[in-house]
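A quick aside before the break. I want you to see a complete sequence-to-structure record at least once, exactly as it would be stored in a machine-readable document. Don't worry about memorizing anything.
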Amino acid sequence: MALYLRRAIGLRITTTLIRRSSTTQTCSISHFLLFHKQETCHTQNPTPLPSFDFLRDSRRGFAKSKKSKDDSGGSTIELAADIGPSVKATATSQMDAAVVALSRELAKLRTGRASAGMLDHIIVETDGVKMQLNHLAVVSVIDSKTLSVNPYDPNTLKALETAIVSSPLGLNPKVDGQRLIAAIPPLTKEHMQAMCKVVAKSSEDVKQSIRRARQKALDTIKKAGSSFPKDEAKRLEKEIDDLTKKFVKSADDLCKAKEKEITQG
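That is the input. The structure line, written in C-alpha coordinates, reads:
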Protein backbone atom coordinates (compact mmCIF):
# COMPACT_ATOMS: atom_id res chain seq x y z
CA MET A 1 0.00 0.00 0.00
CA ALA A 2 2.81 2.42 0.86
CA LEU A 3 4.58 1.51 -2.36
CA TYR A 4 1.45 2.23 -4.35
CA LEU A 5 1.06 5.66 -2.72
CA ARG A 6 4.69 6.55 -3.52
CA ARG A 7 4.13 5.65 -7.16
CA ALA A 8 0.87 7.62 -7.32
CA ILE A 9 2.50 10.70 -5.74
CA GLY A 10 5.50 10.43 -8.08
CA LEU A 11 3.25 10.11 -11.13
CA ARG A 12 1.25 13.13 -9.99
CA ILE A 13 4.39 15.22 -9.50
CA THR A 14 5.67 14.18 -12.96
CA THR A 15 2.34 15.07 -14.55
CA THR A 16 2.38 18.44 -12.81
CA LEU A 17 5.92 19.17 -14.06
CA ILE A 18 4.97 18.13 -17.58
CA ARG A 19 1.96 20.44 -17.51
CA ARG A 20 4.05 23.36 -16.21
CA SER A 21 6.67 22.79 -18.90
CA SER A 22 4.00 22.62 -21.56
CA THR A 23 2.44 25.84 -20.27
CA THR A 24 5.84 27.54 -20.30
CA GLN A 25 6.51 26.45 -23.88
CA THR A 26 3.04 27.54 -24.90
CA CYS A 27 3.63 30.97 -23.35
CA SER A 28 6.98 31.18 -25.06
CA ILE A 29 5.45 30.26 -28.39
CA SER A 30 2.60 32.73 -27.84
CA HIS A 31 5.09 35.37 -26.84
CA PHE A 32 7.14 34.63 -29.93
CA LEU A 33 4.08 34.82 -32.16
CA LEU A 34 2.95 38.06 -30.53
CA PHE A 35 6.43 39.55 -30.91
CA HIS A 36 6.56 38.44 -34.52
CA LYS A 37 3.15 39.99 -35.15
CA GLN A 38 4.26 43.26 -33.56
CA GLU A 39 7.40 43.19 -35.69
CA THR A 40 5.25 42.55 -38.72
CA CYS A 41 2.99 45.43 -37.78
CA HIS A 42 5.95 47.71 -37.28
CA THR A 43 7.35 46.57 -40.59
CA GLN A 44 4.12 47.38 -42.41
CA ASN A 45 4.47 51.14 -41.94
CA PRO A 46 4.08 53.89 -44.60
CA THR A 47 7.84 53.92 -45.21
CA PRO A 48 8.47 52.01 -48.43
CA LEU A 49 11.12 49.39 -48.80
CA PRO A 50 14.48 50.43 -50.20
CA SER A 51 13.65 48.80 -53.51
CA PHE A 52 10.46 50.83 -53.75
CA ASP A 53 12.42 53.96 -52.74
CA PHE A 54 14.76 53.25 -55.59
CA LEU A 55 11.88 52.84 -58.04
CA ARG A 56 10.20 55.97 -56.74
CA ASP A 57 13.42 57.99 -57.01
CA SER A 58 13.98 56.63 -60.48
CA ARG A 59 10.48 57.63 -61.51
CA ARG A 60 10.97 61.07 -60.01
CA GLY A 61 14.30 61.38 -61.74
CA PHE A 62 12.71 60.39 -65.03
CA ALA A 63 9.92 62.89 -64.58
CA LYS A 64 12.41 65.61 -63.67
CA SER A 65 14.54 64.77 -66.66
CA LYS A 66 11.51 64.91 -68.89
CA LYS A 67 10.62 68.31 -67.50
CA SER A 68 14.14 69.50 -68.04
CA LYS A 69 13.95 68.16 -71.55
CA ASP A 70 10.72 70.03 -72.04
CA ASP A 71 12.33 73.12 -70.61
CA SER A 72 15.25 72.57 -72.95
CA GLY A 73 12.89 72.16 -75.85
CA GLY A 74 11.12 75.36 -74.88
CA SER A 75 14.44 77.15 -74.67
CA THR A 76 15.38 75.87 -78.12
CA ILE A 77 12.14 77.14 -79.56
CA GLU A 78 12.74 80.52 -77.95
CA LEU A 79 16.26 80.57 -79.38
CA ALA A 80 14.93 79.75 -82.83
CA ALA A 81 12.42 82.57 -82.50
CA ASP A 82 15.29 84.92 -81.64
CA ILE A 83 17.37 84.15 -84.73
CA GLY A 84 15.44 86.80 -86.68
CA PRO A 85 17.26 89.90 -85.36
CA SER A 86 20.61 88.12 -85.51
CA VAL A 87 20.15 86.95 -89.11
CA LYS A 88 18.96 90.38 -90.18
CA ALA A 89 21.82 92.17 -88.42
CA THR A 90 24.43 89.85 -89.94
CA ALA A 91 23.01 90.28 -93.45
CA THR A 92 22.88 94.05 -93.02
CA SER A 93 26.48 94.15 -91.83
CA GLN A 94 27.74 92.06 -94.76
CA MET A 95 25.80 94.01 -97.36
CA ASP A 96 26.86 97.34 -95.92
CA ALA A 97 30.50 96.22 -95.90
CA ALA A 98 30.20 95.36 -99.60
CA VAL A 99 28.83 98.81 -100.45
CA VAL A 100 31.53 100.54 -98.36
CA ALA A 101 34.22 98.54 -100.18
CA LEU A 102 32.68 99.59 -103.51
CA SER A 103 32.78 103.23 -102.46
CA ARG A 104 36.48 102.94 -101.65
CA GLU A 105 37.24 101.28 -104.97
CA LEU A 106 35.36 103.92 -106.93
CA ALA A 107 37.21 106.68 -105.11
CA LYS A 108 40.47 105.30 -106.51
CA LEU A 109 39.36 105.88 -110.10
CA ARG A 110 40.56 109.10 -111.64
CA THR A 111 37.97 111.22 -113.30
CA GLY A 112 38.15 114.70 -114.76
CA ARG A 113 37.14 116.08 -111.35
CA ALA A 114 39.43 116.46 -108.34
CA SER A 115 38.57 114.21 -105.36
CA ALA A 116 40.35 114.13 -102.01
CA GLY A 117 40.02 110.35 -101.80
CA MET A 118 41.53 109.59 -105.20
CA LEU A 119 45.06 109.45 -103.71
CA ASP A 120 44.30 107.42 -100.58
CA HIS A 121 45.24 104.07 -102.09
CA ILE A 122 48.69 105.21 -103.26
CA ILE A 123 51.49 103.46 -101.33
CA VAL A 124 54.43 105.63 -100.29
CA GLU A 125 57.78 104.21 -99.22
CA THR A 126 59.75 106.32 -96.76
CA ASP A 127 62.73 105.22 -94.66
CA GLY A 128 62.17 101.66 -95.81
CA VAL A 129 58.56 101.61 -94.56
CA LYS A 130 55.54 101.43 -96.89
CA MET A 131 52.41 103.33 -95.87
CA GLN A 132 49.27 104.64 -97.49
CA LEU A 133 49.46 108.26 -98.62
CA ASN A 134 46.59 109.36 -96.42
CA HIS A 135 48.65 108.27 -93.37
CA LEU A 136 51.47 110.63 -94.34
CA ALA A 137 49.65 113.67 -95.69
CA VAL A 138 46.38 115.57 -95.83
CA VAL A 139 44.83 115.75 -99.30
CA SER A 140 42.43 118.61 -99.98
CA VAL A 141 40.59 119.94 -103.02
CA ILE A 142 41.61 123.43 -104.14
CA ASP A 143 39.12 123.45 -107.03
CA SER A 144 37.45 120.92 -109.33
CA LYS A 145 40.71 120.45 -111.25
CA THR A 146 43.40 120.80 -108.54
CA LEU A 147 44.53 118.85 -105.45
CA SER A 148 46.78 119.94 -102.60
CA VAL A 149 48.94 117.40 -100.73
CA ASN A 150 50.21 118.61 -97.34
CA PRO A 151 52.63 116.15 -95.61
CA TYR A 152 52.70 115.80 -91.83
CA ASP A 153 56.49 115.62 -92.08
CA PRO A 154 58.11 117.90 -94.70
CA ASN A 155 60.92 115.38 -95.05
CA THR A 156 58.49 112.99 -96.78
CA LEU A 157 57.64 115.49 -99.53
CA LYS A 158 59.97 113.94 -102.10
CA ALA A 159 58.72 110.41 -101.37
CA LEU A 160 55.12 111.59 -101.78
CA GLU A 161 55.90 113.19 -105.12
CA THR A 162 57.60 110.03 -106.40
CA ALA A 163 54.68 107.82 -105.34
CA ILE A 164 52.06 110.03 -107.00
CA VAL A 165 54.01 110.18 -110.27
CA SER A 166 54.48 106.38 -110.24
CA SER A 167 50.76 105.71 -109.72
CA PRO A 168 48.49 104.83 -112.67
CA LEU A 169 46.51 108.05 -112.22
CA GLY A 170 48.67 109.97 -114.70
CA LEU A 171 49.26 112.91 -112.35
CA ASN A 172 52.37 115.11 -112.33
CA PRO A 173 52.40 117.09 -109.05
CA LYS A 174 54.58 120.15 -108.52
CA VAL A 175 56.33 121.22 -105.31
CA ASP A 176 54.86 124.38 -103.82
CA GLY A 177 56.81 125.25 -100.68
CA GLN A 178 56.10 122.43 -98.22
CA ARG A 179 53.21 120.97 -100.18
CA LEU A 180 52.44 119.41 -103.56
CA ILE A 181 50.00 120.77 -106.11
CA ALA A 182 48.50 118.20 -108.49
CA ALA A 183 46.50 119.33 -111.51
CA ILE A 184 43.88 116.90 -112.77
CA PRO A 185 44.18 116.60 -116.55
CA PRO A 186 41.05 116.06 -118.65
CA LEU A 187 40.24 112.48 -119.52
CA THR A 188 40.54 111.19 -123.02
CA LYS A 189 37.66 109.33 -124.62
CA GLU A 190 39.52 106.04 -124.33
CA HIS A 191 40.22 106.67 -120.65
CA MET A 192 36.56 107.43 -120.03
CA GLN A 193 35.48 104.18 -121.67
CA ALA A 194 38.04 102.18 -119.71
CA MET A 195 36.94 103.78 -116.43
CA CYS A 196 33.27 103.07 -117.16
CA LYS A 197 34.09 99.39 -117.74
CA VAL A 198 35.88 99.28 -114.39
CA VAL A 199 32.85 100.84 -112.73
CA ALA A 200 30.49 98.30 -114.34
CA LYS A 201 32.72 95.43 -113.19
CA SER A 202 32.86 96.81 -109.64
CA SER A 203 29.07 97.17 -109.66
CA GLU A 204 28.57 93.53 -110.64
CA ASP A 205 31.08 92.33 -108.03
CA VAL A 206 29.39 94.18 -105.18
CA LYS A 207 25.96 92.91 -106.26
CA GLN A 208 27.26 89.35 -106.12
CA SER A 209 28.56 90.00 -102.59
CA ILE A 210 25.17 91.34 -101.56
CA ARG A 211 23.39 88.31 -103.04
CA ARG A 212 25.76 85.96 -101.24
CA ALA A 213 24.90 87.67 -97.97
CA ARG A 214 21.22 87.21 -98.82
CA GLN A 215 21.69 83.52 -99.57
CA LYS A 216 23.55 82.95 -96.29
CA ALA A 217 20.68 84.55 -94.40
CA LEU A 218 18.08 82.38 -96.18
CA ASP A 219 20.15 79.25 -95.51
CA THR A 220 20.26 80.10 -91.81
CA ILE A 221 16.47 80.46 -91.75
CA LYS A 222 16.07 77.16 -93.59
CA LYS A 223 18.35 75.34 -91.14
CA ALA A 224 16.10 76.43 -88.26
CA GLY A 225 13.54 73.99 -89.68
CA SER A 226 10.27 73.35 -87.91
CA SER A 227 11.50 74.99 -84.71
CA PHE A 228 11.05 78.35 -86.43
CA PRO A 229 7.41 79.34 -87.12
CA LYS A 230 6.56 79.43 -90.83
CA ASP A 231 4.93 82.86 -90.58
CA GLU A 232 8.01 84.28 -88.89
CA ALA A 233 10.26 82.64 -91.48
CA LYS A 234 8.31 84.16 -94.37
CA ARG A 235 8.33 87.58 -92.71
CA LEU A 236 12.07 87.38 -92.13
CA GLU A 237 12.72 86.24 -95.71
CA LYS A 238 10.78 89.24 -96.99
CA GLU A 239 12.83 91.58 -94.78
CA ILE A 240 16.05 90.04 -96.13
CA ASP A 241 14.80 90.54 -99.70
CA ASP A 242 13.96 94.16 -98.92
CA LEU A 243 17.46 94.66 -97.51
CA THR A 244 18.94 93.12 -100.65
CA LYS A 245 17.00 95.49 -102.90
CA LYS A 246 18.01 98.45 -100.73
CA PHE A 247 21.74 97.73 -100.87
CA VAL A 248 21.67 96.82 -104.56
CA LYS A 249 20.06 100.20 -105.23
CA SER A 250 22.75 101.92 -103.14
CA ALA A 251 25.44 100.20 -105.21
CA ASP A 252 23.69 101.19 -108.45
CA ASP A 253 23.43 104.81 -107.30
CA LEU A 254 27.15 104.95 -106.44
CA CYS A 255 28.15 103.49 -109.81
CA LYS A 256 25.82 105.75 -111.80
CA ALA A 257 27.16 108.79 -109.99
CA LYS A 258 30.74 107.68 -110.73
CA GLU A 259 29.98 107.08 -114.41
CA LYS A 260 28.41 110.54 -114.63
CA GLU A 261 31.48 112.02 -112.96
CA ILE A 262 33.75 110.23 -115.45
CA THR A 263 31.82 111.15 -118.60
CA GLN A 264 30.88 114.71 -117.67
CA GLY A 265 33.95 115.66 -115.67
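Two observations worth writing down. The chain has six helices and six strands. The first helix runs from residue 2 to 43. We'll return to this after the break.
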